[in-house]
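Fig. S4 source data, part A: sequence.
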Amino acid sequence: MGKKTVYIVGNPTLAKDSMPLKIMPLLQKACPQFEFLPFESTRMDIPQSQDLVFIDTVEGAKKVMIIDDVDRIVETKACSLHDFDLGTQLKLLKKFGMLGKMKIIGVPEKGDRKRIAGEVAKLL
């Protein structure tokens, strides 16, 4: 059996959206049993799996959190495809009956990378 995939959502060019990518090397060392793959949230091909795990930035969060209910995700106003984020896609998949079990590990925009990675590792 292969490694379980964890999708890392973030934008390396936006400081407020890059924490998941910044902690990815720390997670790879701490959790070698997982495969961490960068995932562009504007992609339209979310993997069809029964147990999806994403790590994404949560705007305004002060601590690491788990979101396992797509209805808890606050919708953004999509003016273009660049605004079509992970939450919007997951809600659409749910509406069409195409979303199985999923978990988003939400991380703050700022903070100590080692501490955040440690908290995320405990939740995986």
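Fig. S4 source data, part B ends here. Residues 19-30 form the longest helix (12 residues).
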